[in-house]
Design a protein that fits this description.
Elements: H1 6-9, E1 24-28, E2 31-35, H2 43-56, H3 66-80, H4 84-93, H5 99-115, E3 120-125, E4 139-149, E5 152-158, E6 169-173, E7 181-183, E8 187-190, E9 192-195
Antiparallel strand pairs: 1-2, 3-4, 3-9, 4-5, 5-6, 6-7, 7-8
Helix pairs in contact: 2-3
Amino acid sequence: MTGFVPSVHGLPFANCWPDGTPVFEVPTPFGRVPVGNARLGLCGGMVFAALDLFHAKRPVPACPTPAAYRYIARRQVESLRLPFGAMRYYAWQTRRDLGRRTAAVEWPRVKAALDSGHPATLGLVLVRSRDPRQTVKNHQVLVYGYSRSGDVLTLHTYDPNYPGDDGLSLTLDLADPTGPVWHSVEGPRVRGFFRTGYSQPRTVPELT
């Protein structure tokens, strides 16, 4: 375990935003132009923001204040590492078998981070499609610890869709990685995962 506890360090509100809320606005000579729709989710921004606050030893906001929302939205964009991060989700969702790569390549990367005491941010691939518009249906979570029983691996997970849940986990069988990764709430809907490129910012503002 890395010390991160979802009920303490995770954001206490859910990844649920009003339809039509822009993720950010672009200034133009004709005014500010809204971009994106937060209704599709800000999971990456919430995960990155929670980890930023954890590293900075700052308290989490009790609700999505305007300042907290702006920070989460900014971190959402940064979590995608456009354009290459979005392209990675797309490449993964077009592949047939993700389990072997998840177990053989991505899990060792996640394990190395956790063994060094650092929570790991993950991209979860939930869909199989060649339609790039489907990439928004994938997801991001934070893994803060793991345990093993034989070849069965359990990743202890903060999922911004389930705030305050210290018992949430992802489970996979390392001996037979061809099956899906089991989400403790949603069941076998995770096709695979990879470690995303989290970078700790130099400064983290007060969001409470």
